[in-house]
Hints:
By secondary structure, this protein is mainly α. It is built from two helices and no strands. The relative contact order is 0.05. Keywords: Membrane, Transmembrane, Transmembrane helix.
Amino acid sequence: MLLMIHLLVVEGSARMENSAMDMLAPLARDLQWKIFVRQELTALMAKLLAFLEFLMVMVVLALLSMSSKTYLVI
C-alpha cells in the first residue's frame, strides 16, 4: 500500500515537473529571463550562506557551552 502511494506521488511530481519545464522552455531562450533567474538564484544562495554561517556559529556556541558545563541562553 505504501509503495503504491509512493509511486503515485513520484509519478505525479514527475508529471508536474515535466509540465513546468515545458512551460518554462520558451523563457529559457530569453536573455533577460536568464539574467533575472541568475540574479534571483544568486540572492537566494547569499541568504542560504548567511543562514548556514549563523547555524555554524550557534552550533559552535552550543558545543562550547556544553564543554564548559555552562548553559547557553539565547
